[in-house]
Amino acid sequence: MMKPRQLLCKTLLAVGCLQMVIVLVSGQPTGKVCPPVAGAPGCVCDHPDGKIDVRPLANSDGTPKYTNLTDPNKYPYSINPCTPFSVKGGCTNVFICQGDPHIAGEFYSIADNGTEKIYIDTDNKVYLYYTTSVRFAKIYLECDKSVTGTPQWDIKGDSAVVLHYEFTMKHASVCPGGFRGRGGGSNEIKGL
């Protein structure tokens, strides 16, 4: 027979494992993979309504296109949706890097190189999906033909589920069939 303390420890361990399983399951992609285009990076796919190509909205020089995007908890993010970048003293070879507003020089990799894929979820929303060994990120690609310069961002961070990050990028270039603009504008966005 187990002693009360052993039973409590076993129960807490089970609850801790259950919480970890919930986090891992909630971070998995939903829907189906948008068919990739042969020879293109994971940010290009053959959507049933036309090709989606996020490359015009990314830098190709190893730097993040968008910096200082902040979530509701004031955590800043640097994002380059198609080409990996590195941050001196922090993230290496990533698509999304999170800074820590409480610890100067502290960075967290949110989206590792080689993990990017476009998915179409069960509600027909299109998103870029990325992972690290413990974090998951989705950038929802919201088609808006009126946004042709700098994309409009909605940065949720991991406010809904710990270690599961959500962003929305609104732009004409993410519409199936695309837009021929370059997603110009400033290399820096100061949050929404």
Description:
- The protein is mainly beta.
- It has a single domain, classed as Cation-dependent Mannose-6-phosphate Receptor, Chain A (Distorted Sandwich), CATH 2.70.130.
- It is built from one helix and twelve strands; from the N terminus they run αββββββββββββ.
- The chain has a six-stranded mixed beta sheet with strand order 1-8-9-10-12-11, with no helix packed on it. Strands 4-5-6-7 form a four-stranded antiparallel beta sheet, with no helix packed on it. Strands 2-3 form a two-stranded antiparallel sheet.
- The N and C termini lie far apart (58 Å).
General shape: globular
CATH-assigned fold name: Cation-dependent Mannose-6-phosphate Receptor, Chain A
Give a quick account of the main beta sheet: strands, pairing sense, barrel closure: 6 strands, mixed
Task: Give the number of DSSP strands.
Answer: 12
Blueprint (SSEs and pairs):
Elements: H1 4-26, E1 32-33, E2 44-47, E3 50-53, E4 66-70, E5 76-79, E6 94-99, E7 107-112, E8 117-120, E9 126-131, E10 136-143, E11 152-161, E12 164-171
Parallel strand pairs: 10-12
Antiparallel strand pairs: 1-8, 2-3, 4-5, 5-6, 6-7, 8-9, 9-10, 11-12
Give a quick precis of the structure:
The protein has 192 residues and is mainly β. The protein has one helix and twelve strands. It has one domain: Distorted Sandwich (Cation-dependent Mannose-6-phosphate Receptor, Chain A), CATH 2.70.130.10.
Main features:
single chain, 192 residues, mainly beta, Cation-dependent Mannose-6-phosphate Receptor, Chain A, six-stranded mixed beta sheet, 12 strands, 35% strand, disordered N terminus
